[in-house]
Specification:
heterodimer; A: 460 residues; Aconitase, domain 3; 2 domains; 5-stranded parallel β-sheet; 17% strand; B: 195 residues; 4-stranded antiparallel β-sheet; 4-stranded parallel β-sheet; 8 helices; 16% strand; globular; binds iron/sulfur cluster
Chain lengths: 460, 195
């Protein structure tokens, strides 16, 4: 039978199938962080169940960590306690933890790929919906709830029904100034935030084939924003050379053996999908969102559509926008470049390249939050730090930061923030904060101008 | 996990679409290390005004509406995978959530916590909203065995679907961990076969 990439990886992990019921799926790597794991550890402890495969679990602290003075004790007591609890749980159970300040610490979806923990053909889970990021490697990766974290602790498996298959194809060449973030924001604006519910998505076509691993991660990251459980891209030479030589990647002859297998991981010609969409790369422009769900996106120089619907109107009221209006020239006081969507070195290179020799507008507070300690180090090494400092941007320490505003990095009530993160929900970046999702390039340009500008003019 | 068989209750309408888990329980309340206490903060930023006073316009605060069934707009529970959303809704007192569409992870999380997601058609949902708003003391019955939801006063009813395995779990109060532990041998064999 002809199989899709998803079928191949899924089928290789099925331990058992229950008649008329779910399947038992084996999990290769389990990533954990401080927020969604404590209740799972407690559950197992209360029931006297040991953790089955601690060596297949990797922990990091990211959601609830400060992005300044990481060498000092965490000020917020509840946060400090949660971080301490993670350390205790990992220590007790023999789980590797890259805690705050460790050279491998970072946002779970940034640090695991860059350490070679994520590899093609694996199943990877984490108590975090953006686990879909790892799909960029041809991995089945998806977010789980805390009850499921406990299940994986106990059995290294999950009970799941096989999702349906969706393929999104984008062929053609992207215009200058159009980044992977624009591609995914465009797709979601076209198909909506629940088009993918019940599906696992494969991204195919020239645009993804020509994309870097960083770009592919940005795209797969936001699969959840169209409702899909995960997204994946067939591994190719770009993938293999990214993985090769990384800290926890297979080495030497082991690598060669794996490589032979990894090369088989692609959708067979003629394999069937339950649903397909295809788009033309040429039609994609730099994007911006204007509402409170990631599907409410338009091209940067476009107009907010008119839709008669209560939820739509509620959303515009929250944002302080009107149907039919353009966002170009809107004053913006906050810019955030960070989050597991866009906090990899490539994102900071794009931003630095634009910012070089310029100075941010007076009204703007610009936060740059690298996704990991390694990205942070690279920013310094490549001399980007200097460019940012001269431009008046604040380079902070790694973590989720203003993406979910669990720490002190909050956007004030009523303020607009052009953000490279993935969610523009009400209050996501702080109570009453108004988020406009965009690429790192649009974010950098906004910081320089102090308002939204039409960058397409500069790039064409 | 608590068993669920049948529930008859009045319902609270939440006529908003795309209710995300950040609204159900905002991130700043996720710092706890146990499952308790999330009920107080469910829909925190909708239930309370900026000055800390109650928002009287929000249906959960409207004294006409009480009950352990929440009837919500399309695409309920999208966004973050935080199970805290299901814990918060349960702790607040909900046992059933009705919507015309649920986000995947939220649906799984609810089922793992004995909170029943009932997916109905758009037209039935509309009927529910209309009936509840007109007569807030209308009772609604949700029966898991027959997979049926009924508006008691009018007799209008609709079937809903639930995964057979999950149904057994909810009817009996089992959870997945018990089941997975019974598969230990198969898991071992699988691991060995891949070495
Ligand atoms: S950066 Fe944002 S989306 Fe990514 S893991 Fe952290 S909180 Fe979640």
């Amino acid at each position: 039978m002809k199989k899709t990439l998803f079928d191949k990886v899924w089928d290789a992990h099925v331990v058992d199938t229950i008649e008329n019921g779910p399947q038992v799926l084996y999990i290769d790597k389990h990533l954990i962080h401080e927020v969604t794991s404590p209740q799972a550890f407690k559950e197992l402890e209360d029931r006297g169940i040991p953790i089955l495969r601690p060596q297949q679990i990797v922990a990091t602290a990211d959601h609830n960590t400060p992005t300044i003075d990481q060498h000092l004790p965490v000020k917020d007591l509840l946060s400090r306690n949660q971080l301490k609890q993670l350390a205790i749980n990992c220590e007790k159970n023999g789980i590797t933890l890259y805690g705050l300040g460790h050279k491998y610490n970072g946002i779970v979806h940034v640090m695991a790929p860059e350490l070679g923990i994520t590899q093609p053909g694996m199943t990877v889970v984490c108590g975090d919906s953006h686990t879909s990021t790892h799909g960029a490697f041809g991995t089945i990766a998806f977010g789980i709830g805390t009850s499921q974290v406990a299940q994986v602790f106990a059995s290294q498996c999950l009970l799941l029904k096989k999702p349906k298959k969706l393929r999104v194809t984008v062929n053609g060449t992207l215009k200058n100034g159009v980044l992977p973030k624009d591609v995914i924001l465009y797709i979601i604006s076209q198909i909506g935030t629940n088009a993918g519910t019940g599906y696992f998505c494969e991204y195919a076509g020239e645009v993804f084939e020509n994309m870097s691993m960083e770009g592919r991660m940005t795209v797969c990251n936001m699969s959840i924003e169209m409702g899909a459980r995960g997204g994946m891209i067939a591994p190719d030479e770009t993938t293999f050379s990214y993985v090769k030589g990384r800290k926890f990647a297979p080495q030497g002859i082991e690598f060669e053996k794996k490589l032979t297998y990894w090369k088989t991981l692609k959708t067979d010609e003629g394999a069937e999908f339950d649903k397909e969409y295809s788009f033309d790369a040429n039609l994609i422009e730099p994007m911006i969102t204007y509402g409170t769900n990631p599907g409410m996106g338009i091209k940067l120089n476009g107009k907010i559509p008119k839709v008669e619907d209560r939820s739509f109107e509620k959303s515009l009221t929250y944002m302080g926008f009107r149907a039919g209006e353009q966002l170009i020239n809107k004053p913006i006081n906050y810019v955030f470049i960070g989050s597991c969507t866009n906090s990899r070195i490539e994102d900071f290179r794009v931003a630095a390249n634009y910012v070089k020799g310029k100075r941010k507008a007076e009204n703007v507070t610009a936060w740059l939050v690298p996704g990991s300690k390694q990205v942070e180090a690279q920013i310094v090494e490549e001399g980007l730090q200097k460019i940012f400092e001269e431009a008046g941007f604040q380079l902070r320490q790694p973590g989720c930061s203003a993406c979910l505003a669990m720490n002190d990095d909050k956007i004030p009530q009523g303020e607009y923030c052009v953000s490279t993160s993935n969610r523009n929900f009400e209050g996501r970046q702080g109570q009453g904060a108004r988020t406009l999702l965009a690429s790192p390039l649009v974010a950098a340009a906004t910081a320089i101008e102090g308002k939204l500008i039409d960058i397409t003019k500069q790039f064409n | 996990m608590e068993k669920f068989k049948k529930l008859t209750s009045t319902a609270i309408p939440l006529e908003i679409e795309n209710v995300d888990t950040d609204q159900i329980i905002p991130a700043r309340f996720l710092k706890a290390t146990d499952k308790k206490g999330f009920g107080e903060n469910v829909f925190r930023d909708w239930r309370f005004n900026k000055d800390g006073s109650m928002n009287q316009d929000f249906s959960l605060n409207d004294s006409k509406y009480v009950g352990s069934i929440l009837v919500a707009g399309n695409n309920f529970g999208c966004g973050s995978s935080r199970e805290h959303a299901a814990w918060a809704l349960s702790a607040y007192g909900f046992k059933v959530i009705v919507s015309s569409f649920f986000a995947d992870i939220f649906k799984g999380n609810s089922l793992n916590n004995g909170l029943l997601p009932v997916q109905v058609s758009e037209s039935f949902l509309k009927k529910l909203f209309e009936t509840i708003k007109l007569e807030p003391d209308t009772k609604i019955t949700v029966e898991l065995e027959t997979e049926k939801i009924t508006i008691d006063s009018t007799g209008d009813s609709e079937g809903f679907e639930i995964d057979a395995y999950k149904k057994t779990c909810m009817l009996n109060g089992y959870d997945d961990i018990d089941f997975l532990l019974s598969k230990k041998e198969e898991i071992n064999t699988f691991e060995l076969s891949r070495k």
